[in-house]
Write a structure and sequence with these properties.
single chain, alpha+beta, four-stranded antiparallel β-sheet, 4 strands, about 10% strand, elongated, Rad50/SbcC-type AAA domain-containing protein
């Protein structure tokens, strides 16, 4: 759901209310209003709409002759009543003591959900422990989500479910640590921002020196610079290169 559009009229204490809730940036909206203005009427309208009872529809209880309008759209289609759940804070039939879940249609269903979720969460904890050992990362869960999902609202299980078919039995192991790549504290950016002028000057001076050199050359496709020169020096520092290409002494006589 990206947008929820409502058009209410003569619904209990609501004279007229037209609004569109945008869920692209956040999946939660808080309705804040003074007492006696619209909050209870708003919840009551949604509650009766969800029950879809022809004998009990939203109405104006004081001015009963007024025609009520209650249009609730998911995008541009009427929302499914089964997709609406209204929780009354004064209704003690809902058990909200568990931190895992508190908004389910019945206590029995909630208990079943909590049991399944708890088992999955325990398995996830064990999985994260093993992943930390391999990756040497301190925050595998968020790194996994941020790497394999562009939707910040997805949780670990949703991202893992989307990627499960991409897992391989054989994989290439790298020596670097996750924390060598993920700079959450922004230290690299801070360093670059602080030393931008010095870095620019270094690059400018380096290019200037290269441009005046008769040995080094900078080009768009192939560049031979100090790094390449150092690589060659390391390769031949034990004289193995010269031993490989040395020519044995020639035995014989030359005549003019």
């Amino acid at each position: 759901m990206k947008q929820l559009k409502i058009d209410l009229e003569n619904c209990f204490g609501i004279g007229k209310l037209v609004h569109q809730f945008d869920f692209e940036k956040s999946n939660t909206h808080l309705v804040y209003a003074p007492n006696g203005t619209m909050k209870t009427s708003f919840a009551k309208t949604f509650e009766l709409f969800s029950k879809d009872d022809p004998s009990n529809k939203p109405c104006d209880r004081i001015y009963k002759s007024r025609v009520s309008k209650y249009e609730i759209l998911n995008e541009d289609s009427e929302i499914n009543p089964d997709d609406i759940l209204v929780i009354n804070a004064e209704d003690d039939s809902f058990d909200a003591s568990s931190k895992i879940s508190s908004f389910l249609a019945s206590k029995e269903l909630k208990e079943e959900y909590d049991t399944i979720y708890q088992e999955l969460n325990e398995l996830k904890v064990e999985f994260i422990k093993k992943l930390k050992v391999i990756s040497q990362s301190t925050d595998c869960e968020s790194e996994f989500i941020n790497t394999f999902s562009e939707d910040e609202n997805l949780d670990f299980f949703e991202v893992l479910s989307n990627q499960i078919n991409q897992l391989k039995t054989e994989f290439e192991k790298y020596d670097f640590r996750y924390n060598d790549i993920f700079d959450k504290k922004g230290n690299v950016k801070k360093f670059l921002d602080k030393n931008q002028a010095i870095l620019d000057q270094y690059v400018s001076d380096y290019k200037n020196i290269i441009s005046k050199s008769k040995f080094f050359k900078e080009s768009e496709n192939n560049t031979f610079g100090t790094y390449q020169a150092n690589t060659i020096i390391k390769s031949i520092e034990d004289n193995s290169f010269f031993e490989a290409v040395s020519i044995p002494p020639f035995v014989g006589q030359f005549s003019a």
